[in-house]
Design a protein that fits this description.
By secondary structure, this protein is an alpha/beta fold. It has two domains: 110 residues, Winged helix-like DNA-binding domain superfamily/Winged helix DNA-binding domain (Arc Repressor Mutant, subunit A); 246 residues, Rossmann fold. The protein has 16 helices and eleven strands. The protein has a seven-stranded mixed sheet, with helices on both faces. The chain has a two-stranded antiparallel ribbon with strand order 1-4. A two-stranded antiparallel sheet has the order 2-3. Bound molecules: S-adenosylmethionine (SAM). The site of S-adenosylmethionine has 22 residues, from helix 9 and strand 6.
């Protein structure tokens, strides 16, 4: 008997429908979070101790009615806190015209403070660009061919930058680099560093600023990300950094690099095993590779039972990470949760690396590894 012929349990039907529409609620509210970020509504709320919809609207030169409906969504989604105060208006019903809206300190960290490591607006920034790919996905499912990061446009690149920069700014130099044997001293003395899959260059520029005697190169294949990186390089006035496009320039020569970093990008690559071999090749005999990639279980069952964000991550994989990893016909297609530590160690040892150590660094999404020749 097929599933379509089996009897329906009315209670299970209600629960199932609730689950499905909860997913839609999340998707629609995610769009509202995007708007709140783009219009600076969270930043406005963060600077106050409670505002009415008219005050929020006035501060951004916006229409009050639209702001009030946005606030209603945010309160219903338990993102914004409300102190309710109604007024009855003839012909309009009860209006929240005097209701005051505010953010908790935790909400400010995630929604409005770009300096906070928990700042989370990057993925919401890139949401329209990410969802725009939905129109191409049916074709990708048919042909097997995905699209690279440039398919998400400039806003996609900025979204990635805003996703990773806050945590990196807070912890890369103070926590991650000191966890690598002797690395701070080497960087202070002056070494050659390459960041593969550098995106908009945030990590490279940060390290270059802290270690002026070392020389840094950021490598990517995204024109949008690399042009952001170049703009930021000009503003920084740093002279120990360069960026290059791996599509048009060859990777550094054999045994010329002391330290390679890869942040959240190996699982996006069409040929991760080749890239790991290339990293092994460019490193000197005592070189180190810092691999930062998504913390994943070895199986779907593992990820689904242990990772409350698994649905988000598998979805983002289809829209972005796996799509990138299948952006040429021979792509290996690892995807967001496709590069667990077991596979990372296997690929590293196959490439010739002899030591593989997971670092004791707590992160909600990423795992950190020190890998040596
Ligand atoms: C999720 S982003 C991470 C960017 C950056 N590391 C960061 O933390 O902000 C993944 C990056 O990998 C880049 N990428 C994908 N395949 C690549 C390849 N073969 N060589 C270099 N970069 C690649 C993409 O263009 C994208 O910028």
């Amino acid at each position: 008997m097929s599933s379509i012929d089996r009897a329906i349990d009315p209670e299970a039907l209600k629960l199932f429908s609730f689950n499905i529409f909860s997913q839609l609620s999340g998707a629609v509210t995610a769009g509202m979070i995007h708007i709140g970020d783009q219009l600076g509504l969270y930043r406005t709320l963060a600077e106050s101790d409670g505002m009415t919809s008219s005050e929020i609207a006035e501060s951004g030169n916006l229409s009050e009615r639209w702001v009030r409906e946005w606030c209603a969504n945010q309160v219903a989604a338990r993102i914004v806190v409300a102190e309710f105060s109604y007024e009855r208006h003839k012909g309009e019903g009860n209006i929240d015209i005097n209701t005051r809206y505010k953010l908790t300190p935790e909400a400010v960290a995630v929604l409005a403070n770009e300096e906070h490591p928990a700042f989370g607006m990057g993925m919401f920034h890139r949401l329209p660009a990410t969802f725009d790919r939905l129109k191409d996905l049916p074709e990708s499912f048919r042909t097997g061919l995905g699209f690279d990061y440039d398919a998400h446009g400039v806003e996609g690149a900025i979204g990635i930058e805003r996703s990773f920069e806050p945590w990196s700014n807070a912890f890369l130099v103070n926590l991650v680099l000191p966890a690598l044997a002797g690395m701070i001293e080497k960087l202070q003395d002056g070494i050659t560093v390459v960041d593969v899959g550098c995106g908009a260059g945030s990590a490279v520029l940060l390290m270059a600023q802290h270690f002026p005697k070392s020389t840094f190169m950021g490598i990517d294949i995204s024109e949008h990300a690399l042009s952001r990186a170049s703009e930021k390089l000009v503003v920084s006035q740093l002279t120990n950094v360069s960026f290059m496009n791996a599509k048009t320039t060859s990777l550094p020569k054999s045994s010329t690099v002391d330290f390679v970093t890869t942040f959240d990008c190996i699982h996006d690559m069409t040929h991760p095993q080749k890239m790991i071999k290339d990293i092994h090749e460019m490193l000197k005999s005592d070189g180190t590779w810092l691999l930062v990639d998504i913390k994943a279980g070895n199986t779907l069952a593992d990820n689904v039972s242990k990772n409350p964000m698994a649905a988000l991550m598998y979805g983002i994989s289809v829209l972005s990470c796996m799509a990138s990893a299948l952006s040429d016909h021979n792509g290996e297609g690892l995807g967001t949760l496709g590069f667990p530590s077991q596979l990372a160690e296997e690929f590293s040892r196959d490439a010739g690396f002899t030591t593989f150590r997971q670092l004791d660094i707590a992160h909600s999404v990423n795992a950190f590894y020190e890998i040596q020749k």
